[in-house]
Amino acid sequence: MANIPLDPNNVISPTSLYTLFYLTFCIFFIFPTREFISLGITVEGIFEWFLKCEFENFIFYQIRRSCVTLIVHSILPLGYILFLLLLTDKIDVLLVTNIWMHTFLVFSLLFPLLMCCLILYWNKKGSWDNHPIAKSLQRFCDPNTSWRQLSSDINIEFRSIDKVSLQTSTIHRVIATDNWIMKVSPYRLDIAHQSDSVLVLCQADLHHVSVDGQGVVQYLNIEVKTTRRGVKSFFIRCNATDFHLLQHKVDRPISILQGIVFYKTLTEQFLEVFEENVKKNPPYILPKDEQLDQCIGCMVAEPSVKLVKCCQDPEPCTKCYCRPLWCLSCMGRWFASRQEQDQPETWLGSTCTCPLCRSVFCILDVCPLEKTS
Predict the structure, then answer these.
(1) How far is Cα 139 from Cα 263, in angstroms, rounded to an integer?
(2) Do the beta carbons of residue 310 and residue 249 sit within 8 Å?
């Protein structure tokens, strides 16, 4: 085979390859993927020694994190020049003769300096009173309260085990405590008090291929409108499966605009059919002296079903001797989780095992509880 001569004009230069690689790295560093996060190639992962623990002091952690993120991201253009110096011996000529590279060099030097001056202004006299997060908190304070006192209250609520924390993307997180709704972003922290906020579900979009490989997924855009003077409204975006968690934590109803339809997963569709069929089964009369605890599945609702062999087939269903411990929803989810996920048409006619004693039952054996008067 004859050798085909290479056209020097069609060969990609090392500088171009380096530029493409560095640009790709910067994009994934600023908007990290799960692989970057798992490897710790993020601002939080690299500077964990300086940022310390978010759980101990949430507000000051966000102040430090926003400052470090600004500085690190502002240094990225300068990093391009410095690494290019190591790879190319003619970079000094390139910077002088090329007006675009010369302008980029000046920008890469000035940008970090401006960010450092901004952070010094925020931390004037070491108080952080000029930081945007501190100014946001100050709008919620009365004349006798400082933003530091308010941050202490928020830190206590953040350490609570019943807060709702939703990782809505790799760079955004939504946190709902007893009194606050917060959105964590790379450079800022949006805060709203529940008492003077209105949540409106204004948009829902459906994606047939999700990032985590779960197939069809629906995302909801919720606007947090606040009546507090000087506090701007903001949007939060969450998975439709997490909507009920947020709805349960917020003490105000979330308004849903007309025309928005929630997408129901296969399990949710099955639960509706499961509950309809269970309600047709003969009830189990609960003895007067039997006390019910919370459902051991969700620890929220009260047990509402009892497994009683009602089907006429001698096999494979067996008798269950467990006392009522599950609500209808948790029993339905357990039933669905034990089925062949690629054959949903067979779920209703299939069997399952009791979560505790492993006795076999079908949907006809799930009896609703009925208390004696």
Answers:
(1) 38
(2) no
